[in-house]
Amino acid sequence: MSRVSRPDPARAELDRRVRAFIRERTADDFREDEAGFEALALELFAFQYAHCPPYARFCDARGRAPGALRSWRDVPAAPTGAFKELALRSFPPERTCKVFRTSGTTGERRGALYLDTLSLYEASLVPTFERFVLPDLAEGARARFLVLGPSPGEAADSSLAHMLGAMVARRGAPESRFFVRGGELDTGALARALAAAEESEEPVVLCGAAFAFVHALDALAARGAAFRLRASARAMETGGYKGRSRELGAEALYRAIEDRFGVSPARIVNEYGMTELASQFYDAVLREPYDVALREPAAPRRKLGPPWARVRILDPETGEDCAEGEAGLVAVVDLANTGSVIAVQTADLARRVGGGFELLGRAPGADARGCSLAADETLGAPG
Amino acid sequence: MSADAASHADAAALRRTLARLREAGRALAARPPGAVLDALGAVLDAWRDAGSPPRRALAEGLPRSAGFSRAVVERGLEIGLGPFSGARLRALYERELGPPDAGRGAAASPRRLATGFPSTAVLLAGAIPSASLATLLAPLALRSAVLARPASRDPLTAPILRESLARVDAELGAAVAAVAFDARSDDALDAFLAADCVVATGSDATVARVAARVAPPRRFVGYGHRVSFAALGPEAAFGAALAAACEALALDVALWDQLGCLSPVSLVVAGDASAARRAAEALAGALERLEGELPRGEVPRDAAARTAHERAEAEMRAAARGDVALFAGRGFTVVAERDARLDRPAPLHRFVRVHPVEDAAGVVAALAPYGPHLAAVGLAGFGGAAPDLARALAGLGASRLCPLGTLQAPPLDWCHDNEGVLLPLARLTDFEPS
Question: CB contact, 8 Å: B341 with chain A?
Answer without folding.
Answer: yes
